[in-house]
Amino acid sequence: MTPPQDSSEHHHSHDHATGSSRPRLAIALALTSTVLIAEVITALLTGSLALLADAGHMLTDSAGLIMALVAAGLAARPATDRSTWGLRRAEVIGAALQAGMLTVVGAVVAVQAVRALIWPSPIEAHGMLIMGAIGLAANAIALVVLAGGRGASLNMRAAFLEVASDALGSVGVILAALTVALTGWHRADAVASLVITALIVPRAAALLRAAMRVLMDFTPEDLDLAEVRRHILEVEHVEALHDLHAWTVASGMPVLTAHVVVRDECLTEGCTEEILDRLQECVAEHFPVRIEHATFQLEPVSHLAHEAQYC
């Protein structure tokens, strides 16, 4: 007798989130690019390291937002026979690249800031203050635009973090400019750069770690696979379980597969539908992660010996 196999899958469209994120990203990119050009010019005229550091963040943000925009477009492309999940993981790769760039820029700025603390240079505070205020206003608008979609994917989360880092940078520039203007303490510029770096780099590193967990097919962090195994084994007629795997294809798309061994007579008596329903209920109702793509292969106990021959 050929070992029976049954599977149950849910197919849902995840294109809405990726599609709706593109206009937000385009608006944020236009704002960031405009301010970037203005900040570079002003930083060169005023000699402000904090403003130049913020321009550096703006540069990586512009590049990051371009990557995010491209990744969102790729992720929205439909699945094909050669790419059965589509290109949804492009948004995770984009997020990893953005986080990596932000971490590198933060390290470079930190080194330059330490040098500026030791050998401070004169700063023209008034131009620095004006540009900081303009940058903050542009970043605030971009943050409002991106805020509604930041939970949609790692890609949007990375884009939001990029712009948030710029907003913090603009606040640092303003505070440093005020300090220099009121007290003449030029090292305030370098101190502001170090504070900005200290706030941003840990968040970028955390985002990079989250993206790498997806790319390495780790089990979703809030899913206890041991608990999943225990619940499945408690389902009536289930005798054993093997090849249990859980991973994340892209943001919001956890996947679970398993080979479930059931009593031989249960398959011949036609109760596979009941077992599959119970397994789907088990995954859907008892775990914090909503797993919409779960596939179960039902196998009779007598098949275990045969499977060992082919593995």
From TrEMBL:
Transferase in keyword set: no
Sequence intervals crossing the membrane: 25-51, 63-80, 92-114, 126-147, 159-184, 190-208
Membrane-related topology note: Multi-pass membrane protein
GO molecular function ontology, one term from the record: zinc ion transmembrane transporter activity
Domain Cation efflux protein cytoplasmic as annotated: residue spans: 220-300
Residue ranges, compositional bias (Basic and acidic residues): 7-17
Compartments it resides in: Membrane
Matches recorded under Pfam families: Cation_efflux, ZT_dimer
UniProt cross-references to Gene3D superfamilies, sorted A to Z: Cation efflux protein transmembrane domain
Keyword annotations from UniProtKB, A to Z: Ion transport, Membrane, Transmembrane, Transmembrane helix, Transport
InterPro entries: Cation_efflux (IPR002524), Cation_efflux_CTD (IPR027470), Cation_efflux_CTD_sf (IPR036837), Cation_efflux_TM (IPR058533), Cation_efflux_TMD_sf (IPR027469), CDF/SLC30A (IPR050681)
GO cellular component entries: plasma membrane
Region (Disordered): 1-20
Start and end residues of each Cation efflux protein transmembrane domain: 26-216
Family per record: Belongs to the cation diffusion facilitator (CDF) transporter (TC 2.A.4) family. SLC30A subfamily.
Name of protein: Cadmium, cobalt and zinc/H(+)-K(+) antiporter
Species annotation: Actinomyces slackii
Name of the coding gene: czcD
